[in-house]
Structures are given as C-alpha cells and as structure tokens.
Write a structure and sequence with these properties.
Layout lengths: L7 E2 L52 E6 L16 H7 L4 E2 L2 E2 L6 E2 L3 E4 L27 H5 L1 E7 L13 H13 L27 E6 L18 E7 L7 H6 L3 E2 L2 H4 L44 H5 L14 E7 L3 E6 L7 E2 L2 E5 L15 E6 L3 H10 L4 E2 L8 H5 L4 E7 L3 E6 L27 H8 L4 H8 L4 E3 L23 H10 L21 E6 L5 H15 L5 E6 L1 H10 L4 E8 L6 H6 L16 H12 L3 H18 L2 E14 L16 H6 L8 E6 L3 E3 L3 E10 L9 E5 L6 E3 L8 E5 L5 E7 L9 E9 L6 E10 L6 E6 L5 E3 L3 E10 L9 E7 L4 E3 L8 E2 L7 E4 L9 E10 L5 E10 L4 E3 L5 E3 L10 E2 L5 H5 L3 H14 L1
Parallel strand pairs: 2-15, 2-16, 20-21, 20-22, 25-32, 34-41
Antiparallel strand pairs: 1-22, 3-10, 4-5, 6-7, 7-9, 8-9, 11-12, 12-15, 13-14, 16-23, 17-23, 18-22, 18-23, 19-23, 24-26, 26-30, 27-29, 27-31, 28-30, 31-32, 33-35, 35-39, 36-38, 36-40, 37-39, 40-41, 42-43, 42-44
C-alpha cells in the first residue's frame, strides 16, 4: 500500500529514491469492488459475511515489466537499495500502516484507524478516519501542548506478515526506532526525538511516543462488539517536540512496517550463522512498565541493544524478504529477473483466514487484492532492446522514459499505448562542494561562514557553469520538446509551490569566461587550460549515465563539457555505469554529476532532505551543501502550519538554491511510457507515471466492459470566477451509469470545488444521478497562477468497470481581460458506433459568462474520417448561436482499430482573446466477442489459450436492444434533422 507523497528516487529517471518510508502516495484511481452489503452502518465494523475479491479457476496471470537494470539487494536498508530498480521490487513487498483514498488522496483508515480528535481519551466511532487534532476546548490551558499531543489508534486484526506471523503494535514502535537510526529515512521522524533539530538519533534511542496499551487498557468505543481479537487494538501517544506540517501524512500514516520478529535477536532463524542483532525496543513484558516497547539505549546491559550496522549489512536470501504488502517476494535470479507473487492474505478488510468475517467494512471501498498473480521483472540493458521486447509482446510494460525517437513507431502499433505525462521531478547537474574549485575551502564550513567568499570560493565556478548550459538546446534537440527548460528545484507543474521569479542564467560562454577571468582562474602556462584551486589545470569529470542507459543525460553532459572546454576548462563528460555513479555519490568521491529526481506527490518538503546541512553526512544532501539561511528557511517551513505562509517560505528556499547553486537544474521532462494495452488495462497516472501503487493494484486483463467519464467545463474563466463543471458517465453501451463515483481534482492552489458534496477544497467526490451525471462548481484561484492553464482531473469508477480518467483544461485570465470561453455539451456521452452519429453542442460565452451568439466558430476533426454538420470552416465559420446544440458528429463507416478516438477542436473568435476547446469522440466497431477463461476478450471464433471460449457481452446488442441512450439519441436527432 505504500503511503507516499514526495519521496524521491534516482531511478532510470532518478537514480535514487527514498523508498524505505513512503509518505502518502498521490493515489489516482482503482477499480472499485465496493460491496454494498459490507458497508452497512454498524458500530465500527461488521461481521456480515461476504465473498470479496473471489476468483474462479483460471490461468496464472503474470504481468511482465521490463527495465534497464536489476535490483541491487534484497535488503531495503542500505544505501545501495535506494535506487528505482530495487524499489520497484521491494516496494511491492512492504507496506505502510496508513492509506490514502485512491481518488481524493485524503488519509483514510487502514491499520491505523484514526486519532483522538477531541482529546477526551476515548476513540469514538465519529473519530474513525480522523487525522487532524481538533481545536483545544475553551478555556485552553496550553494550545501548543494540545496540538502537539496526538493519540493514535491501531487495529492489527487481519494484518499478517508473509510468513503468517501476526503483526502488532510492537512492529510500529520497532520501526520508529530502527528507521530513526538510518539518516536517509529519519527526516520525518526527528519531530519525535528529544532534539528535533539533531542530525543523528541519540544513543539513548528515546522517542517521545508512549505506549498506552491494548484491549481493555484503552478506551475504544464499542471495542468489545467488534470482530477479531480486542488485544490487537492498541493506542500510542505521540508528543511532538515541535510543530511539523506533515506529521499526520508522513510521520504517522507513512510508516513502513519491517518485521520486528525477523530483525531482532536471531530473527527466528533467518540471520546467517544464527547471528544476534540485538533488540531495538524493550519487550512488552519487560519488568519495568515504563520501558515497555521503548527504545533500548546503546549502553543497556540487561538486554543487547540493536546492532543496526548488522541489520543493514545483512545479505538476505529470498526467504528473508518478508513484509505485509500485496505481493510476497518470489525470487531474484541475479542478472536475469526478479519475481513477486500475489499475497493471498493481503489485508483489505476481511479476515485473511476466514473471508466470511469482515473486520473493517470501509476498507473494501478503496482497497482490494491485486488482479494479477505475479509480477516478473526482466532486464533490458538498452532502450532499444526494451522497446523491441514491448513490440514483440515479451513484456507488458517498459518501465523507462522513452526517448522521443521511439514514439512514432510505437504510436503506430495498435497493441501499444503511449503515455506522456509531465512529472514533478527534475534533472540536474550537481557539484561536490566538499572540495575546490566547486565549493568550500574547508568542509564543513565554519559556523556562520558558509557564505563567506573566502570559504565558499566555488560560487563563481558554479555561476560560470550555469552560463555554460544551453538548456534550450537540450529541450529542443535532445528532448525534442518533450520537456520544459528548468530554473529551479520545484516543477512549474506544481503550481502552488513553484517560484516563477527565480534568476535565469543565460547560455553565454563569454559571460562564463568573464566570471572565471575575474577570479584569476586563467591559463598561466599557455597549455590552453585554466588553472583552478586544488586542481591546477588537471582534468576533472562530469559523471553521466551511459548513452545506452539514458542518451539525454549522456548528451547533455557532453554538450556542457564541450562548452566548458571552449573557454579553457579541462573537464570531460564521463559516461559511467549507473551503479558506479551512485556508489561514488554515496562515498562523496566525485567532482560533478548529472542525474535526476523522481518526486512522488506535490509537497516540496524533499528540499529539506536534499539540501539541509544536517543531511550532508549520510543523508541525501549529496553535494554537501551548507547554507545557514537555507537551513533556517526550510526548517521554518516544516514547522509552519499556515499553508500560505509556508508557501512563501518554500518559494524563498527555492530562491536561495537558485542563487547558491548546489544544483544546476537542467530540465523538467515529459515522461513518455509505453504498455501493451492488448494485454492489460486499467492504469492510472500518479506523479507523472503509470507505474504507481494504484496501477499495480488495479491492472487487469482487458474486458469488454468500460465506462466513459465525459467532462463539460469552460475553456476559460476569470480569476476568482466560478463556473459549472459537469461529468456524464456512460457505459460501453452508451447507457447512463447511475451511482458511479466521480472525483474532481486540481493541484493545490489552482482552485476549489463547491456545491453538493464538495467542501470548498481542491478535490471533490460525488456520485452520479439516475441520468449518469454529476455536477459541481469550480472557482478559479486569485490571482492568476504562474501556470494559468489549470488541469481538472476527472476520475470515474463504478463496480465491475475499469476506472476512467479524463482531463479538462481551463485557462485562468486576469480581471479586466476580454476573452471567449467554449464549453462542449456532450450530454449523451462520446461513444458512437461506426456509420452512426451523435448530436452535441458548443456553448460560447464571454469573460462575464454571458452568451456570445455573434462569435464565429470553426470546428475541425482529426484524424480524418468523421464529418461534422454543420460544416464550420475558417472560410465559412458558423455563428455561435447556431452551434449551441444540434451539431452532428457522423462516424465513419469503418475504422482501422476499435475503438478509435477522434478529436474535435472548436475555436471561437470575436471580441477578446479567442477560445479553443478540444474534445473526443470514441468510435467503436460493432463485432461479436467472447471472453476467455483468463479474462481476455477476443473476437468471436478466435481460440483461447488454456480453455474454451466463454460467451461475452458486447456492444453488438446496443442497437438491437436499444440500450444505448447516447447512440439512439444521436440517431433520432440526425434523422429528424434530415427529414
């Protein structure tokens, strides 16, 4: 389940990621399997029997993933495991105590059920799912102590490790202690240390967490009536030593569970040679009650303290990799493949040993067992080999950002779907500030002198190199415009946090040379190379991935090195094996390198991990950057609970980084991925990739059943203005889907939703009416955001259907600006059989929301094939008043592939800025199909592997049974028009 928000990783994109602890992921969607029977209102849970996620006999479904490299170790603790390839595998095995809603990303109950919101000492029914302390009751004696004291409640019923050992509250306490020792993963735990500003966990191993007990020792409303073992219901009191904006999401809910029983002592026989690793926490039976489940100091003699280096150095076998995640570890064949297998006892609300017993009826509404039986990870050392494997059907998904040159061929393959998403990560060049000429004369720099020009002598060097990077050339030529020029460590796609006023360093070899000349770094011996402190004129390296691993970064390094050489800098671009780069970075043994970060989520708290000086020794501050002003700013941002104030602090922190330049951020990439859509469907996008928790949990064999969520939103709106956003949900027959769950969301800071179930936040979830529609009111932000084109993400899910996700773009204009806006009216959906037609409308309005009937409208359709009536061309545009309704989309009589999506682009001109809106129609070929035993849907008469054909429902009965309201409506309207 891996709750995650913003953990970064260097993978193929980022060669590294902090993935041991995964604060809450940005979850987008899953295929709902909600069973109404188990959602009945009962105290907290219900014991109603239900067969959830049951499957019949079928072939094993294996999902095959191709990647550039293999996992590095089975042990997730050492730094070598902090790469994407290891995390891809182990991230399926381990799980967190908390969960987020797959659509809204709100914190929801899992093992942790909620907190004592009102502070009355009793966990009440209404507090389940509550993850924010309420207001201090008046008169409030101490507001600070009140908000920093949080009691959380856990229920471990149904939670089993993969070796069938029951998880319990001791696992939580153990992991807080063990993960606090690791400098790469303790940044969100320091708020619980005695000194929250310390860089290392103290030898006392004391955490400000109190074990309050389990079962009858705590007050849990109606606990005695709940199914399961009441002694597995426990409470912990957290005493925060400072405010922390991300405490609930990261510290509390985002804790990953490693099995205490396997790491402590002799690990139940798992440790090699019977080695004893000692104990991280006192046993729950310890004679001194106050010490029970507390951290054991390193000088304790009555019981052996935990030997963390031994745990980190443990060379695990396949059998040693044990978690609570949806997949259990299968095997790793070095240099060949790795495999994880579906864990049939994965907890999703029912008793894993007796699924008839429902332990938590809320969980099946947002979590379920995976639909695949195993995931096979295969290695393809070059992108070309990976693409060939995808095209041949050897793999189902290629987990690598595709270079643009592969895109045209893949787009022409009907069995392959190409995804392109802006990702919140970035690619950068970093300097080793531990050595000259890149950084400090003394490292770490003396306190208070980190900006002294006699100490940070490397700043002019870094400024000169900033002018040697032709970012426009990198984006235009290397990325072929599948990316954006970067200026800082937060992507502009992250509109709320992005600082759009950062300094920009123009590409100029002359300016770079002038900076170096001013420092006296010139060629004194006439050999053509400048002399630098420590180096003289000897050569130094920019480490880059090899070209067969990532041609973009390899070429970028070569371009930068060539520019530097042109002004006498003796530097070379050194393409290097990825593992060698990460090893050098971890050891601090490098000059410069080019890598990238893949960021999960939108919160930029990763800046603390990457650049705070406390993380320069053993953490993720790989350049060794010290800046007291940055430290103070980013630390203050973590403590700030007012989001608007925190926003300003984060922007200021970005400004410091742009001036001091521990990184030169090169570009923000469009992440291009490809998968076999003839083999698996039901992917979702999260943090710019389809490789995410909810995709892995929800992918399944293609089915003939689907839903389409067709949004209707204006193409433009004034800042602070409001407009209706409606969504029409139709099934594969064009029939309205009643009761479908629809979620609307925009990036934080990009507007809010209100009306109906909406609560004035940037997300809203509701249910469709009997006509298959859901509506809300969108209010634009003010002032106009840095990225004025706001994407409204629409996600729809209904029981028995794969999820559907669409996006509507709304451009925000400043007050006083004259503009036009187009709202498409597809009230009956967007599905059309070949040869038939569908009626729609285009509503054109001005900046004040008034109809603009005299505006001119043109409409085009691509690719060619369908026709539009009336024909509104640039030569003969249509008055807007004539296209508000009654426009006919006539589908072609045949299509090369079913379904085929056609794009209609409407453009309105008149007074003010013109408006453009593009919306889709899906044309299907009516054919008989059958469903194979493994769930695949194939044309009638096609043989299935491993079993006979099973008759399947299909869109053929659409016209015969007149079940598709959308299609029939379009046909009737068309015939009336022609009568």
């Amino acid at each position: 389940m891996h709750v995650r928000t913003r953990r970064a990783c260097f993978s193929g994109v980022e060669e590294r990621r902090n993935t041991m602890r995964k604060p809450v992921r940005v979850a987008i969607a899953l295929s709902a399997i909600a069973l109404v029977a188990i959602m009945l209102a009962v105290p907290f849970y219900t014991s109603t029997a239900a067969a959830i996620d049951s499957t019949g006999t079928r072939d094993t479904v294996i999902y095959t993933v191709g990647g550039q490299d293999q996992m590095k170790t089975r042990n997730w603790l050492p730094s070598i495991a902090n790469d994407v390839w290891t995390s891809d595998v182990l991230g399926r095995v381990y799980d967190t105590v908390g969960q987020t809603d797959p659509v809204t990303d709100e914190l929801v109950p899992y093992i942790i059920k909620g907190i004592d919101v009102d502070g009355d000492g009793t966990f009440q029914r209404a507090e389940k799912g509550g993850f924010l302390k309420g207001a201090c009751p008046l008169p409030c004696a101490d507001e600070v102590t009140w908000r920093r004291t949080v009691v959380a409640y856990y229920d471990f019923n149904g939670v089993l490790y993969h070796d069938n050992v029951q998880a319990d509250i001791g696992d939580v306490m153990f992991n807080y202690v063990m993960q606090s020792i690791n400098p790469r993963f303790n940044t969100d735990l320091r708020v619980l240390w005695d000194d929250p500003n310390a860089a290392t966990f103290p030898a006392s191993r004391h955490l400000n967490i109190d074990f309050l007990g389990c079962g009858t020792a705590i007050s849990w409303d109606l606990a005695g009536t709940l199914p399961g073992d009441n002694n597995l219901r426990c409470a912990l009191r957290y005493r925060l030593q400072d405010d922390f904006a991300l405490f609930y999401r990261n510290t509390l809910v985002g804790l990953t569970l490693f099995p205490r029983h396997e790491f402590e002592g002799t690990g139940a026989g798992h440790h090699p040679g019977g080695a004893d690793f000692g104990f991280a926490i006192y046993p729950v039976t310890w004679p001194v009650a106050s010490k029970r489940l507390q951290g054991i100091p390193t000088d304790e003699t009555a019981i052996a303290p935990f030997n963390y280096p031994a745990a980190e150095g443990w060379l695990m076998t396949d059998a040693d990799v044990i978690g609570t995640g949806a997949f259990r570890f299968g095997t790793w064949s070095f240099g060949a493949f790795a495999r994880v297998d579906k864990y049939t006892k994965y907890f999703y609300g029912v008793d894993p040993n007796n699924p008839a017993v429902v332990l938590d009826p809320d969980l099946p509404t947002y979590i379920h067992q995976p639909f695949v039986d195993a995931i096979l990870f295969k290695i393809y050392r070059t992108t070309q080999l990976g693409v060939l494997a995808l095209e041949s059907g050897e793999i189902d998904f290629y987990h690598w950002a595709l270079p643009p040159e592969f895109v045209p061929d893949l787009l022409n393959d009907p069995n392959v779907r190409v995804w392109a998403n802006a990702e919140p990560g970035f690619f950068y060049m970093a300097y080793n500030m531990r050595r000259q000429p890149f950084g400090y004369t003394t490292w770490p720099p003396p306190a208070g002198m980190d900006r002294d020009p006699t100490v940070d002598t490397g700043l002019p060097f870094r400024q000169a190199f900033a002018h040697l990077i032709d970012k426009a050339q990198i984006v235009r030529v290397l990325l072929q415009n599948y990316g954006v020029i970067a200026d800082g460590t937060v992507s502009p796609a992250n509109t709320f946090w992005y600082n759009g006023t950062l300094p920009k360093y123009a590409y100029s070899t002359a300016q770079a040379a002038a900076i170096l000349d001013n420092q006296g770094w010139v060629d004194t011996n006439g050999n053509g190379w400048r002399e630098f402190p420590r180096l003289g004129d000897s050569q130094f390296d920019i480490l880059t991935p090899q070209a067969d691993y990532d041609p973009i970064r390899a070429s970028a390094g070569a371009m930068i090195a060539a520019a530097a050489q042109s002004i006498g800098v003796n530097v070379r671009s050194a393409p290097t094996a990825f593992g060698a780069i990460t090893s050098a970075i971890g050891a601090g043994d490098f000059d410069m390198f080019i890598l990238g970060w893949r960021i999960s989520g939108t919160d930029p708290d990763y800046l603390f991990s990457f650049f705070h000086s406390s993380n320069a020794n053993g953490g993720q501050n790989y350049p060794g950057f010290y800046d007291s002003a940055f430290d103070a700013t980013i630390s203050a941002s973590r403590k700030e609970l007012d989001e608007s104030k925190r926003q300003q602090q984060i922007k200021y922190a970005q400004g410091i980084l742009a001036q001091r330049l521990p990184y030169d951020v090169l570009y923000y990439r469009t992440n291009i991925e490809a998968e076999r859509n003839d083999r698996f469907v039901n992917y979702s996008v999260s943090s710019g990739t389809i490789w995410n928790f909810w995709s892995v949990m929800s992918i399944q064999r293609p089915t003939n059943l689907f839903i389409h969520a067709v949004p209707s939103a204006p193409s433009a709106i004034v800042e602070g203005g409001s407009a209706a956003v409606s969504v029409s949900v139709r099934d594969q027959d064009g029939a309205a889907v009643s009761g479908a769950t629809v979620a609307l969301s925009v990036i934080s800071g990009s507007g809010t939703f209100s009306g109906g179930p909406c609560t004035g936040t940037n997300t809203c979830t509701g249910v469709t009416t009997a006509t298959g529609t859901f509506s809300a009111t969108y209010t634009a932000p003010t002032p106009v955001p840095a990225a004025p084109d706001v994407e409204i993400t629409v996600t729809a899910q209904a029981a028995g259907y794969p999820i559907d996700q669409r996006k509507a773009v709304v451009t925000i204009f400043a007050l006083g600006t004259q503009f036009l806006s187009i709202t498409p009216r597809l009230n009956t959906g967007d599905l059309v059989p070949t040869g038939e037609s569908l009626v729609f409308g285009v509503d054109v309005r001005d900046q004040d929301g008034n109809s603009a009937p005299s505006s001119d409208v043109t409409m085009t359709v691509s690719p060619s094939g369908p026709t539009l009536s009336p024909s509104c061309t640039t030569v003969s545009p249509c008055p807007a008043s004539t296209v508000q309704s009654g426009v006919v989309f006539q589908a072609p009589s045949s299509i090369s592939a079913s379904p085929t999506v056609f794009h209609v682009t409407a453009r309105a001109t008149g007074t003010g800025t013109a408006a453009t809106s593009t919306f889709d129609f899906t044309v299907v070929q009516l054919t008989n199909t059958v469903t194979c035993p493994d769930g695949r849907v194939v044309p009638a008469g096609t043989s299935c592997q491993g079993g006979p054909l099973v008759p399947a429902l299909d869109v053929l009965p659409v016209l015969a049974t007149i079940a598709a309201a959308a299609v029939i409506y379009g046909i009737v309207r068309n015939r009336k028009k022609g009568a």
